[in-house]
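How it folds:
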Amino acid sequence: MLVEENKPLAPLTTLGIGGPARWFVEAKTEEDIVEASELAKEKGAPLFVLGGGSNLLVADAGFNGLVLHIALKGIQVRESAAGTNERIYEVAAGEDWDQFVQQALDDNCTGLECLTGIPGTVGGTPVQNVGAYGQEVASAIERVRVFDLHERSIAEFSAEECGFAYRHSRFNTTDKGRVVVTRVDYRLRSGGAPTLKYADLRRAFPPDSNPTLNEVADAVRRIRQSKGMLLVENDPDCRSAGSFFKNPVVSEAQAAGAAIICGEDPPRFPSGRGNEGLVKLSAAWLIERAGFAKGYALGRAGISHKHTLALVNRGGATAAEIIALADQIRSAVAARFAIDLQMEPVMLGF
């Protein structure tokens, strides 16, 4: 196991921002994870698990602890019970997410086609319950394998035990900082029809058409690119952490209040499991009606020219500048709508 010191972290994130890690280990096996956790304990240092760096903002001073970069590889495929027409994909946490999704598409397996084009690694997907365009990973996850830092042992959780809700799981709440995801098992349906719930996605196809999984995935990529949510080399709008704010889940009264204030109904989405009786509003809609347009800049930080939810590094931006812009946006939305926007990226070293 190689231990590096003062490892720059900015190049390992999609925002390209932040200082170094005091110690850095790349884990290629579960044994590496065990050794690295023991090293962190010996040094009395906090441990942070890094995947693809796509949902992360690192503080300018860096992280005075040990960063464990998950690089476990391997995908095992097995057929599910006879007659179910399903396949189980056992995917190591360090596998590239988009490459795995493409493998499932090539195998004509449905369940992840709307989640193409998302940067990062497989191990991060159950933590945030990654979702987009009418799908979320919770609907396809069979099991999550982890290393428990407290018990010093391997554990496995069924989907029901993961506590999935909108951008929520046990791994970013009750077990936050306790477990390291080493493998995620996905149950996908062979030959099933693609999911076409999202309005922008439905508009991409003629009525009564029957697009293939790959055609739906291609449409998702086009939509993501039009919103600056697809990593494209040399595109400054791609230097982001994806959606910086969660779509807020609010009461019907709050949603009605926003409509009255603006004289128009805000876009609404299903609130997701665990949020019965509530409604999810578009954070982008709220931000725009609080006075922020695409392309807005605050120093070297700014809002993407393509999507209001993406805060971007325009070149040489600091974490402090990104936070200042986020605070400005949150304050304006709260002042106008009495709705608190929650930041989505993980904050390291603050």
User: Anything to note?
Assistant: The first strand starts at residue 3 and ends at 8. The helical segments are 30-43, 97-106, 125-128, 199-202, 213-226, 252-262, 283-289, 319-337. The CA atoms of residues 135 and 286 lie 23 Å apart.
